[in-house]
Amino acid sequence: MAPNTGKEKTILIVDDSPESIATLAELLSEYNTKVATNGEKALTILRAEIPIDLLLLDVMMPGMDGFELARIVKADPHRSGTPIIFITAKTDVQSFIQGFDLGADEYITKPFESESVLRYVRQRLG
C-alpha cells in the first residue's frame, strides 16, 4: 500500500494577505490547496461542488469576513461537517469565543508557528 501523501485531500485557504496565502500553500504542499482572497470567492469555490476537506479561514477580510463565511458553511447541510481552522490576527477573547461558537475546530493566531498549523491540519484530515 502506498504511503498517504495527503494529495487526495483538498484545503481551501481563505485569506486576503498574499504573504499568508503563500506561506500556507507552501507549508501545506502535501495537500491539494485552493485559494480565495475573500469570503465571496470562497463561497463560489464551495458552491462549485469541489470537494473541500478543510477550511483555513482568516477572520478579517474585506466584504464578508471569516466569521460570516463560517456561519454560512455550518448552516449548509452539505458542508456543515467541513472542519474549520481560523488563522487570524484577532487575539481578543470575544473573537476566540465567537470562532468556537460558530463551529471552529481550531483557532490559531498570527503570526503562527508552522508546526502547529501542520499538526492541527493533520489531526483534522487524518
Question: Would you spell out the secondary-structure blueprint of this structure?
Answer:
Layout: E1 10-14, H1 18-27, E2 32-36, H2 39-47, E3 54-57, H3 66-75, E4 84-88, H4 93-101, E5 106-109, H5 114-125
Order of strands, widest sheet = 2-1-3-4-5
Taken as a percent bin, the fraction of beta residues is 15-25%
How much is the radius of gyration in Å?
14 Å
SSE order, as H and E?
EHEHEHEHEH
Q: Mean pLDDT, nearest integer?
A: 92
- Unreliable stretches covering 5 or more consecutive residues: none
Largest sheet: 5 strands, parallel
Helix content estimate: 25-40%
Shape label? globular
Number of strands: 5
Amino-to-carboxy terminus distance: 16 Å
Would you give an account of this structure?
The chain has 126 residues and is an alpha/beta fold. It contains 5 helices and 5 strands, in the order βαβαβαβαβα. It has helices at residues 18-27, 39-47, 66-75, 93-101, 114-125, and strands at residues 10-14, 32-36, 54-57, 84-88, 106-109. Strands 2-1-3-4-5 form a 5-stranded parallel β-sheet, sandwiched between helices. Strand 1 (10-14), helix 1 (18-27) and strand 2 (32-36) form a beta-alpha-beta unit. The longest helix has 12 residues, at 114-125. The chain is globular.
Summarize the structure.
40% of the residues lie in helices and 18% in strands. It has 5 helices and 5 strands; from the N terminus they run βαβαβαβαβα.
Q: What labels would you give this structure?
A:
126 residues; alpha/beta; five-stranded parallel β-sheet; 5 helices; 40% helix
